[in-house]
Amino acid sequence: MPWHQSPVTARLTAVAAVTSSCLALTACSAGNADSAPADPHGQLAHLRIAAPGSSAGYSRARFGTGWVDTDHNHCDTRNDILARDLTNLRRRGQCTVTAGTLHDRYTGKTLTFRRGSASALVQIDHIYPLHRMWVMGAAQWSLAQREKAANDRRNLLAVDGSANEAKGDQGPAEWMPQREERCGYATRYITVATAYRLPITTADKTALGRMLATC
User: Fold this and answer.
1) Any idea where the GmrSD restriction endonucleases C-terminal domain is (predicted)?
2) Which of 10, 17, 72, 206 is most open to solvent, judged by the fewest CB atoms within 10 Å of its CB?
3) Which ranges of the chain have pLDDT less than 70?
4) Residue 132: other Cβ atoms inside 10 A
């Protein structure tokens, strides 16, 4: 801490820096659904450590049949995320995003999205992967709780499709985005783990701590 800063000033500065980086990751809009935690370091310290359980019984359908309208705005979650994360938007009707530009936070690429021709180019990633949720405790949840988690805006990001496929079901210890976005990625991962009381592995905790150090 600089000698001229009071502890309170230093604390506010640190929180502002973390929040700014987190918002950069997801182009957050106002509201709790996209808000960043005030203290990801403290949240990380309180996350339970556990080894992954069995994959038995897992399928994507265990988290619902697809994108739903969990916030009752009459648009499905996929279109909500595209509208949040893309610029230069074009729509068909109230909800359907037909075109836009993605400044991808995982790779740094700028991608053009056009519905019907770019589904593989731009995909929606679950930052805390659904399979990982399953093996870390979601297998014991109700279908309604799993569907809510699968459509939680805090855990969703429009990204480069090839990066999403490379990430797959891996956690922070096995995969991370470009260095400039690691703070935001780690913060979001911790947010979701905290919100759903999901444990993390020892290796993931170490990796998340290192990523938070870039904030």
Assistant:
1) 77-210
2) 72
3) 1-37, 117-119
4) 22
Q: Which residues contact 178 (CB under 8 A, 6 or more apart)?
A: 105, 106, 107, 108
What CA–CA distance (Å, rounded) separates 174 from 167?
8
- Burial 182-200, CB ≥16 within 10 A → b, else e: bbbbbbbbbbbbbebebbb
Instruction: Identify whether the C-beta of residue 200 lies closer than 8 Å to the C-beta of residue 49.
Output: yes
pTM value surpassing 0.85: no
Query: At 182, which amino acid appears?
Result: R
pLDDT score at 30: 31
Question: Residues with Cβ < 8 Å from 26, sequence gap 6 or more?
Answer: 34, 84, 85, 105, 157, 184, 188
Render 170-210 in DSSP notation, one character per residue: --TTT----GGGHHHHHHHHHHHHHHTT--B-HHHHHHHHH
Spatial separation of the C-alpha atoms in residues 196 and 145, rounded to whole Å: 9
Helix (H) or strand (E) holding 157: strand 156-160
- In this predicted model, what pLDDT tens digit does every residue of 81-96 receive, in sequence order? 999 999 999 999 999 9
Contact 83, 89 (CB under 8 A): yes
